[in-house]
Amino acid sequence: MTVVRTVSRLQRDGLVTAKPYRAIFLTEAGEKLATKSRERHRTVVEFLLALGVPAAAAHADAEGIEHHVSSQTLAAFERFVRSGR
Q1: Per-residue H/E/C for the chain
Q2: First-to-final CA distance of the chain
Q3: CATH number of the domain located at residue range(s) 3-83 in this protein
Q4: Which residues of 20-59 are buried (b: 16+ CB within 10 A; e: fewer)?
């Protein structure tokens, strides 16, 4: 997918505002989605680190896991991390 098509899709979905040859800015909805994505990533990384996965591998693996993990599994990861196990 090209950058132009991706930006157009993000604009269509109300996640960014953009003008030709200008910067791209997140909308309020885009900010909320970005925050949610960062939190998902942080949870998965913290879970993997708690299991003893080396930091570099935890960060690399979280990139794929965070996109495929269900909300129930993510909640279980969060409970595990918070329990201090």
Answers
A1: CCHHHHHHHHHHCCCEEECCCCCEEECHHHHHHHHHHHHHHHHHHHHHHHCCCCHHHHHHHHHHHHHHCCHHHHHHHHHHHHHCC
A2: 42
A3: 1.10.60.10
A4: eeeeeeeeeebeebeeeeeebbebbbbbbbbeebeeeebe
For the chain, which residues make up each domain, given as ranges? 3-83
pTM: 0.80
Residue 84: which pLDDT band, with cuts at 50, 70 and 90?
confident
68-83 pLDDT tens trace: 999 999 999 999 999 9
Mean pLDDT of the chain: 93
